[in-house]
Predict the structure.
Amino acid sequence: MRGCGKRVDLSQILGTAPHAPPDERLPEGIVARLRGALAADGASADEVQTAEARLREYRRLYEPYVNALSEHLLMALPRFDGTARAVENWRTSAWEKIAREPGVTAADPAVDEEHT
């Protein structure tokens, strides 16, 4: 997996021992949606099962490290469901207006009124 070493290195540099999050971050409902999306895209039952197993394994490898880093750096881990909207720091500054993403309007609550 690309980039996993960077998480491990950063964790070691900052002295953050890896540990799993206290709560499951990937609810079963979202896993079911992912399974459905794969099946709807033509994946066989075996392919869906393999993809789910690979996702579990990837999470087992990286999640304890990013969880520890998240706690140490006081940065919440993002949700898996895609509901959290955030404006990327590079899109705005104290001196410039926000560079909007396509489809984002001023009425969108994710857009900071001060920067519109």
Remarks:
- The chain has three helices and no strands.
- The helical segments are 4-14, 28-40, 45-73.
